[in-house]
Amino acid sequence: MTTIALPSYEDATSRYEPVIGLETHVELGTKTKMFCGCKTDFGAEPNTQVCPVCLALPGALPVMNGAAIEATIRIGLALNCDIAEWCRMARKNYFYPDMPKNFQTSQYDEPLCVDGYVDVTVDGKEYRVEIERVHIEEDTGKTLHVGGATGRIHGATESLVDYNRAGIPLVEIVTKPVPGLGDRAPEIAKAYVAELRDIIRALDVSDVRMEQGSMRCDVNTSLNLPGEEWGTRTETKNVNSLRSVERAVRSEIIRQAGLLDVGTRIFQETRHFQETTGDTRPGRSKETATDYRYFPEPDLVPIAPDTAWVAKLKTELPEKPSVKRARLREDWGITEVEMQSAANAGAIELIEETIAAGASPAGARKWWLGELARRSNELGVDLVEVGATPAQVAALQKLVDGGKLNDKLARQVLEGVVAGEGEPADVMKARGLEVVSDTGALQKAVDEAIEANPAIAAKIRDGKVAAAGALVGAVMKTTRGQADAKTVRDLILSRLGAS
User: DSSP class of residue 318?
Assistant: First the structure.
């Protein structure tokens, strides 16, 4: 097998034009499944939330979940879609072990919501991502391949199927192809999914927790030379974090550019993103709609939403995330660039919750966009997964504001919190990191610093109080950073008669 030399990302995007498209699946937070009364609780024992309907036993008939239809319409309205006055469910036929019926009840040529859009901002520039359709369907079960090295079916000795997820209401949001993004394509893909997540979370119809699979993204990518027709697309399946969406697009651009450079054809196929390596691996050739043999679902009546009801739902939509960001930016007293940085880091909600827990806007932003953002980058995880909660960050800032910690000691406490050592106050006590402000305890360290630095002490006695900073530094070093700097400075000046 010949190894192809891959170009740099900058080189690839200077010569080829990427076109992206995203298909996002969102599990709705309904209490029961799409066509039966089974629970939808995450993390239940395998195959304990099933019944004859979602297992497709003979004679079992589906009944539509009205709450799921309403949630889908609300999503469509929030995405600026037109809502169909009449549509139908369809059978999407294909065999896979996690499909009890050997078909998925979905929608084909008559989706519930069409022709919407989402606007996203990256580095101060606004981009519009057009939505082709939003339709309702049911989720599949979950297959676990065991006995192999990769966790996939190839090389596995056996496969286990959990049907708890089969039949959970699932909304699929499909964009139109998005050309003209150039080298910003990966960032815009990430920004779109982040905005979509914020919109759906604001609607309170799903927890959109990508790490639990309740929001999953299929990323389509193709390349073409300037002025030529769009290239053949690949579909990277089930990308489960914002960071991975960006990396998947970037990786496919580089891989496809390398193949096109040597005249190799790009095949339409599904691919799998590898978190550890940051690249994609081949899955299967991509079926067309004809291969799925769609036909109308005969066991379900059509969906015909009342127009007055839809209009009422539209008036009840919550504040748009973009409007909310503008309001928060004014409340927090920050610039648009600073708010965009918080949005790009996925930190807005975390900062908001930290402020609600008692921290100041400046304090909340400092930790989430500073130390915690650095750790999330180092660990290669989204900020929400870094290991600290908004309540813990607020408690940490309260210790700083109360003078029990300085920023240096607080970073050490945060390190312990992230490591799972407990709440900030507990970590502070266990590690002995509390600021020492007792003058009696500090006086000895101050005297030693003065004695060890007579020349500096003489300058201070002569009125050059700025020189006190060197002695403060010496005391801080002796006390391992635990001394209260202001108290130390006051003691030094008093001792040397310069206060």
Answer: P
